[in-house]
Amino acid sequence: MNQLLTGNISRKTFFLIYAFVALLVLCFVFYYYHNTSQCTTAYSVHHITSFHKEPNILKNELHIVADGAWTVNSIGRLGNQMGEYAVLYALAKLNGHPAYILPSMFNRLAPIFKISLPQVHEEVANKIKWTTYWLHNWMSEEYKNISGKYVRLGGYSWSWTFYHHIRDEILREFTFHDFIKEEANLYLETLKGSRKNVTYIGVHVRRGDYLTTMPIISKGVVADKGYLEKAMKYFRDKYEEPVFVVTSNGMQWCKKNINSSRGDVYFSGDSNETSPGKDFALLAHCNHTIMTIGTFGIWAGYLAGGEVIYLDNYTLPDSPVLKRFHYDAAFLPEWIGIPADLSPLLAKKTLTRE
């Protein structure tokens, strides 16, 4: 009887302890859930109210401050966007205003470079009453004194004349992500072979849509076989073991028109215009550059440093392009220009007159 009583008491004690522990657990869960919900709600309210503040106040989670904000139109592909970014960076700094980029520009540049300018959320940007300030594609004195707290730079500007005085900062902005740099250098190393004194020359041949727009709209030409032969001869004569790394959006034409019989020409890259980061990284990590036309090649030469050869005077004197494009504002003075062969255009012009 005593043993049975003792067993019953132990069993009751066990159930009491179990019930007490379960109650403690339930209390803890309730307390945790209640406080977490309050924090989440508080964060959500703060997020919504800060996001929907009057845009002229510009205090939100994107760190846009009441001192104002400058941005720039996001137009074109990689080379154009790099130019627009650099122009914004330079002019905003020159005029003492914070700079922000639009999401489309961020999405284009951030996967490739370690850019530092923050992006302004699209919904926030749409609420701001921007003052559009139109630029031409060369630096002018009046751009040193642009007024306005919320300025959106417009036009089609990418010239070195805006930012070359802060070249080191611009190059830092366009520092490649480590994995891109490593991939480019690893590829170039595979081209070295048994060469002991290799010099890499990046060659960018722009074709694609320019084949139709240049002669019809711009009254200009694209680079031909003769231009590339002259440019490559310059480097072959100057360097002992040159290696030419060719990228293009017209690679079949390149393979037919660039003589690779010497074994120093490599048709490289993936020619993918929708994601050109690989081609661009290869060019930028070469020692020197041969470009044809377009901002892609210009920026490749600018980042690579070294010597740059470009196609010069590739439009007729009456080209409409010259109203917004100056050769001396597009190509640095130390770069080497080889005049284009305009005879095909001149012949058509003569036939038209007849």
Silhouette: globular
Terminal residue distance: 131 Å
Number of strands: 9
> Within the largest sheet, what's the order of strands?
6-5-4-7-8-9
Multimeric status of the protein: single chain
Element layout with pairings:
Blueprint (H helix, E strand, L loop, with lengths): L1 H50 L17 E4 L5 H18 L7 H7 L12 H6 L3 E5 L14 E6 L11 H7 L4 H15 L5 E8 L4 H9 L6 H14 L2 E8 L2 H7 L7 E3 L9 H8 L3 E3 L4 H10 L3 E5 L14 H4 L5 E4 L3 H11 L1
Tell me what you see in this structure.
The chain is an alpha/beta fold and 354 residues long. Strands 6-5-4-7-8-9 form a 6-stranded parallel sheet, with helices on both faces. Strand 8, helix 12 and strand 9 form a beta-alpha-beta unit. The longest helix has 50 residues. The radius of gyration is 31 Å and the shape is globular.
Describe the structure concisely.
Helix content is 47%, strand content 13%. It has 354 residues and is α/β, with parallel strands linked by helices. The strands form 2 sheets. Strands 6-5-4-7-8-9 form a 6-stranded parallel sheet, with helices on both faces.
